[in-house]
Amino acid sequence: QNLSLKNISVSRQIFPFGLKIHLNTRTPIAYAERILDNETIIGFIDKDGVFINKGNLGDINLSKLTLRVFGWKEKFKEILSEIFIAQEKYEFEIVKISFSPNGFLTLEEKDLKTIFIGFNPNLINYQFQIINNLKNEFKKNNFSEKIDNIDLTDPNKPKIKVFKP
Question: pTM to 2 decimals?
Answer without folding.
Answer: 0.85
